Amino acid sequence: APPSFADELAPVRTTPPGRARAELAEAGSGPLPAALDRDDLAERAADAVEWVWTHTVMPDWPRRRRILEADVVARSAQLGRGGWAEAVNGMRPGVRWLGGSRLQINTHDNPPRELGGAQLLFVPVTPYQSWVCWDIPRRYGLVYPCSGALSEAGSDPVPAALGALIGPARAAVLLLLASPLSTTQLVALTGQGLGSVGRHLRVLLDAGLVRRRRAGRSVLYFRTDAGDVLVRGAG
Q: I need a surface site. Which of 167, 185, 192, 212 has the fewest CB within 10 A?
């Protein structure tokens, strides 16, 4: 089970004052304003993060979490199909797998950094923004925007040929599974009942056109290569 939000916030609250000031100055690319040059900066920062979580993120967290889980499953599938190059290329502007265990994270002319022995985290977020972060020398993070957000799903009409072959309702489900989705999401996006979506998924699974994978508390479905070929062939 993942840690609670309070558990994750606890290290922020206990950051020593000097380190808190130095890290905030680094993040802001300049000296701290006088109002932030204080010994309770870490505690106040944690309070601010907690307020943002409680009032702006938590009410919408179940939807955001499903999008994040879908992106992780999609990236994992890309990694399995084409290795690191397919999984990370285009993750954010400037990111490119160079081969030989080398990863370019931006287009700045900075010297390379050796990360052997450290953690490298890929962190999806729902806003269309990206950045890098670090806790030298233990951990480095590449924050990138999710692909295939649910708001973009369902905008393409079902090809007539595909609908004639497998039925328009089942074709609509298959079309949406270009990005991993849960049964609940498919119900919301198609307007079909839960039982109907479940039957369509069973048929598509038996036919080898989709696969499923557990991600956290959700089971996500996504098209196989055979499913992709069928959709492309139908136009």
A: 167
